[in-house]
Amino acid sequence: MRIALDAMGTDTAPGPEVAGAIQALRAYEGDDVEIILVGDEVLIEAELAKYSDVPEGISVHHAPDRVTPGDPPASVIRRKPESSIVVGLRLHKQGEANAFVSAGSTGAVMASSLFTLRPLPGVDRPPVGALLPTARELCLLLDAGANIGCKPQHLVQFAHLGSVYTRDAMGRPDPRVGLLNIGEEPGKGDELTVEAYELLKSEKGINFIGNIEGRDIVRGECDVIVCDGFVGNILLKFYESVAGYIVDLLRTELEAAEDSGVDLEHVFRVLDYAEYGGAPLLGLGGVSIICHGGSPPKAIHNALAVAARAVRSGLVRHSEEDLRIPS
Amino acid sequence: MRIALDAMGTDTAPGPEVAGAIQALRAYEGDDVEIILVGDEVLIEAELAKYSDVPEGISVHHAPDRVTPGDPPASVIRRKPESSIVVGLRLHKQGEANAFVSAGSTGAVMASSLFTLRPLPGVDRPPVGALLPTARELCLLLDAGANIGCKPQHLVQFAHLGSVYTRDAMGRPDPRVGLLNIGEEPGKGDELTVEAYELLKSEKGINFIGNIEGRDIVRGECDVIVCDGFVGNILLKFYESVAGYIVDLLRTELEAAEDSGVDLEHVFRVLDYAEYGGAPLLGLGGVSIICHGGSPPKAIHNALAVAARAVRSGLVRHSEEDLRIPS
Q: Which of these, A188, B29, B164, B167, is most buried using a 10 Å CB contact count?
């Protein structure tokens, strides 16, 4: 298996990409995984030269251009066909790579993935997933911001795509799907959620457990939460920031506690998004994983692991089959 | 000034209400504040009898009936006219009390307040506010769940009502208003927020600072955040639960740290909703404050303080005047 990794995506590229790729290959030693670093070959080779023991299975594919924050996402495909994002996706599309991972501009990766990999039949609006830490296991929230103004049937498609993803890439045998809403009872919510509830409760092939309120999210009672990208995006960004805020509140005490044997490493690890390996784009004819622009090597490593698992499990084929089930 | 306090609202009523009222009167000694405990006079008197030193200024107004969780909120006014909620609001409406505070069913208090106190001229959909802890000061989020499917002009009304409230009841001289959205730039968002942005940026009498993303909320850069009640409710409930979740994550370490001099009291206090004194209903011809059903005496005390401040500052009159300004 080959994974194309955009080597020019993070804010300090290609350092974290190269380090993450090396970490990943060392961890998978013996597995059949190769990583293609896509980007400026001079910069990448210079970075690789810092390592005395680059594992086998790393190669470089030159892409002379680079997407910058000022580039309108939708125009990247047309205006920057030789950028690392577009070149990496093209390698995937042409079968030279089995998946694509990037920490570049979220909008550009989404738009370019959509254009290059195309939505699967039955998918109107491919969603982006986000993994939320909960009191139990991680929960996949989708849509996390790609689709604003969803229709009820889009949430049903998200439920299918999220179920296949959590089954294939996260090992959940019978994923529970919740609908993000403002009350537990059926009939609660806005027009979208009231109608989506009705569709979801009789939809075949998903394990719908009903409405999920804001306060239920961290309890971790579902594997997949579906919602419109507007509320999903606000919730995700809020969650990412609030953990930091609460930890800041604790900072003085933590500093005092550092000498007193208080072990907070586990807490930070649970709340650390770098652990979770990026946000998958779902419902496309390929595997495309987006990482934060500030990703450290560990986050890149984990995103590569998620991509490998998605490829190995047959995520795309399963998604396609699942959506073909007549509902 | 007299405040009508629903004495039958909390899950363990009337204990917390009586204790909170006594705390409040002791704190305001010398101020001209009286509290009318509204509810079952036998139960209230029995509770008062537990105190040897009940301060002056407490009186009891009998209300034989009580709203229960099974009562449909909209029907309480008609079906339970002698409930503590309806009787308390009537005392306010008739001028025998200057404000009403209740920890009873949120829906019942909202519906009964709306019906009894009526919206002010210029207010189509009175919002409910919620106070969010931030890295700086508390921030008023509205609407927190009373209004689903808002129109752009409703968010403009919320901006006015929130500005007057934070000025009058929270002492913010020039409240900054943000629009909750999924991007910072104008033009981002769903239909509602795109149109609301256009209205808000040219609206007179408010200090609009633009779009606020999920990650900006805890930074505390605005005094008022306006949004539709759907996203506001999900965000509020999520925030209430996530603090507890993160503290749970810390629990083992906290227990270990208890003996090691780590002082976490401040952290808990900042995240403790009981500190903040309830959720105000805004845009009505009166002052109505809703507390959590699980409110301890401190929360009741603080809600009474907020009500007193709202009355003293002329909140209702200011709201009415503010909404009369031609925009």
A: B164
Enter the ipTM. Answer: 0.86
| B124-275 CATH choice from 3.40.718.10, 3.30.428.10, 3.30.499.10, 3.10.50.40 | 3.40.718.10
Decide if pLDDT at B80 tops 90: yes
How many Å from the N-terminal Cα to the C-terminal Cα in chain A? 34
Using CA atoms of B26, B27, B28, B30 in order, give the dihedral in degrees to the nearest 10: 60
Name the one residue in this structure whose structure tokens are 């409110």. B295
- Within 8 A of B193 by CB-CB distance, chain A residues are 230
Domain boundaries, chain A: 1-123+283-314, 125-274
Superfamily of domain B1-123+283-327: Isopropylmalate Dehydrogenase (3.40.718.10)
Name the minimum distance, in Å, from the CA of B168 to any CA of chain A: 28
- Tell me the β-bridge partners of A180: A212
The per-residue pLDDT for range B105-160, each reduced to its tens digit, is 989 999 999 999 999 999 999 999 999 988 888 999 999 999 999 999 999 999 99
CB within 8 A of A161, min separation 6: which ones? A123, A126, A127, A142, A282, A283, A319, A322, A323
CATH for A125-274 is 3.40.718.10
Q: Which of residues 227-266 of A touch B (CB under 8 A)?
A: 229-231, 233-250, 253, 256-257, 260-264, 266
Terminal CA-CA length for chain B: 34
- Residues A204 and A324 sit within 8 Å (Cβ to Cβ): no
Structure-token pair, residue A273:
């998004």
Share of chain A above pLDDT 70, in %: 90
Residue in B182, B238, B247 closest to A215 by CB: B238
Q: If one looks up domain A1-123+283-314 in CATH, what number appears?
A: 3.40.718.10
Do the two domains B1-123+283-327 and B124-275 of this chain adopt the same fold? yes
Nearest chain A Cα distance for residue B198, angstroms? 18
More confident residue, A225 or B324: A225
- Tell me: the pLDDT tens digits for A116-141? 999 999 999 999 999 998 888 899 99
Q: Is B326 on the interface with A (CB under 8 A)?
A: no
